[in-house]
Specification:
By secondary structure, the chain is mostly helical. The chain has 2 domains: about 15-45 and about 320-360; about 65-315, ABC transporter involved in vitamin B12 uptake, BtuC. Helices cover about 75% and strands about 0% of the residues. It contains 17 helices and no strands. The protein has helices at about 1-30, 35-45, 50-80, 85-105, 110-140, 140-160, 190-195, 210-225, 230-240, 240-245, 250-265, 270-275, 290-300, 305-320, 320-325, 330-365, 370-375. The longest helix has about 35 residues, at about 330-365. The radius of gyration is 23 Å and the shape is globular. One of its GO terms (molecular function) is transmembrane transporter activity. It is a multi-pass membrane protein. This is ABC transporter permease.
Length: about 375
């Protein structure tokens, strides 16, 4: 019972922030001259026909999987007190290398997919190790280095799809994609599950990688809360001095945290690569998951379960964008709503932290007034 109460108190600020964000968004919609109730109906409108509803559910699931993985990647850095803004570049590099290697090898179906996943994780980890080493050896802020590496990743990916990983079947001026992955390197969609649930099947494939994302979330939940590594990671983030005094190397933990964050970031682009596109193209590559993952991690309070809920919320809002536009509400309203939600969470968390601090100070005065008097006098 105590654990349930603690869990409820932990997520209460998020619930309050969501309510405040909804009110602020309604006010914004009123200011631009639209009806907030119409916007609310559009948010929960999945379509009139069964096929349209199935398509909306499929888009919701497909969008949530990479957002969840991106939020997990960012949260590992946050727990260590690191701000890994480089998830965007890390998953871009990982996706293009995984696509190129996956198209170049031949292997049985399960092994082929496993190799692609491992290559993506290794590529993301290697790219994330660069800012980690710079921070440990030269004191370079990971914020600055990861921002710069995001821009560099765009150039590297463009080179890779035009030179070593280019599809030779395309013309000289058309080499902007990698070769297609063979059938053994693809993950089947889960559209059949809709039929088992009595729903229409979506027209686009629903990524089967979502089950791998769930498995990754479970593993990370265990690692972060039940292992020595997770304990040292939390300790180093909360109190580096105490962690060092207990024999935990801050430099080592910085590198480990960034490498693990990069490895998780390497998975972000795989749901689409293995489930639908089967190739990397600079034109069709979906960017932005890395930056949105920061908001998802903040909203989920750096906990896998909370991140899953935040990813579902953000993907739900993204899915409603076209429907909002049909009601005369600009698509930017979705982005504004997401920003307001994160801002409200930060504000409510800070208010809660200060109230808790004042309550502890009052409790200390009641329990030991003499000590408090001496501290004030000194």
């Amino acid at each position: 019972m105590t654990r349930v109460v603690a869990w409820a108190r932990g997520f209460a600020p998020t619930v309050v922030a969501l309510g405040v964000a909804l009110l602020v968004t309604a006010l914004f919609i009123l200011i631009i001259g639209e009806n907030p109730l119409a916007a609310l109906r559009a948010l929960f409108d999945f379509g009139e026909s069964p096929t349209a509803q199935a398509n909306s559910l499929g888009v919701w699931i497909n969008r949530a999987a990479p957002l969840f993985l991106s939020g997990l990647a960012v949260s590992v850095g946050f727990r260590m007190g690191l701000f890994n803004i480089g998830v965007e570049g890390q998953y871009r590099i990982a996706t293009v290398i995984a696509a190129g290697v996956g198209a170049a090898i031949v292997a049985p179906a399960p092994l082929h997919v496993l190799v692609i996943i491992l290559v993506a994780m290794l590529a993301g980890a290697a790219y994330a190790a660069i800012p980690a080493v710079l921070k440990v050896t030269r004191g370079v802020s990971e914020v600055i280095s990861t921002i710069m590496l995001n821009s560099i990743a765009i150039g590297i990916a463009a080179y890779l799809i035009r030179r070593p990983f280019a599809d030779p079947d395309l013309g000289e001026g058309e080499n902007t994609t990698t070769r297609d992955l063979p059938e053994s390197g693809r993950i089947p969609g889960i559209n059949d599950l809709f039929g088992l649930l009595g729903l229409e099947e979506p027209r686009r494939p629903v990524y089967g990688f979502v089950f791998i994302a769930i498995l990754v979330g479970i593993v990370m939940a265990v690692v972060l809360s039940r292992t020595r590594f997770g304990f040292e990671l939390r300790t180093s983030g909360l109190n580096p001095s105490a962690a060092t005094a207990n024999g935990v190397s801050a430099s080592s933990m910085t590198i480990k945290a960034m490498v693990l964050s990069g490895a998780l970031a390497g998975l972000v682009g795989l749901p689409e690569l293995l489930g639908e596109s089967f190739r990397f193209s600079g034109e069709s590559f979906v960017a932005g998951y890395g930056f949105t993952g920061i908001a998802v991690a903040l909203l989920g309070r750096n906990r896998p379960l909370g991140i899953a809920g935040a990813a579902l919320l953000f993907s739900f809002l993204d899915r409603a964008g076209p429907r909002l536009q049909s009601e005369g509400i600009p698509p930017a309203a979705v982005v504004i709503m997401q920003g307001i939600i994160v801002l409200c969470v930060v504000i409510v968390d800070e208010i809660g932290r200060r109230r808790l601090l004042r309550a502890e100070e009052r409790r200390a005065r009641v329990e030991d007034p003499q000590t408090v008097t001496e501290e004030v006098a000194s």
